[in-house]
Amino acid sequence: MTRPSAIATVLVDDERVRVTRFDFAPGAETGWHRHDMDYVVTPVTDCHFLLEEPGGAARRVEMPAGAAYRRPAGVEHNVVNGGDAPMSFVEVELKS
Question: Under a CB-based contact definition with an 8 Å cutoff, are residues 93 and 21 in contact?
């Protein structure tokens, strides 16, 4: 089954950071990707993440709007809206 793609909108991209807003319809995905920089994610809406990970593992994570988390470079995954409502978050990638 093919999932719809999340919509990525770059808000800032300069020498220090890249800030991207991701908007997902229910069931939409980012597609598999690897983070080459440390990053911070802040949900704009309540988010019901389905995180697909290398090796076939998957896990569900619920995050309320306004929360935040940080991850190091090297994370590889596919992010899916595992809920039944649209979801959005802002990702800040740290270039240095």
Answer: no
Confidence of residue 85 (pLDDT cuts 50, 70, 90): very high
Judge contact between 44 and 91, C-beta under 8 A.
no
Average pLDDT value for residue range 51-68: 97
CA distance 96 to 86: 32
Burial class (CB in 10 A: 0-12, 13-18, 19+), 27: middle
- Beta-sheet pairing, 38-43 with 17-24: unpaired
CB 36 within 8 A of CB 30: no
Vertex 42: Cα angle to 66 and 10 (nearest 5): 130
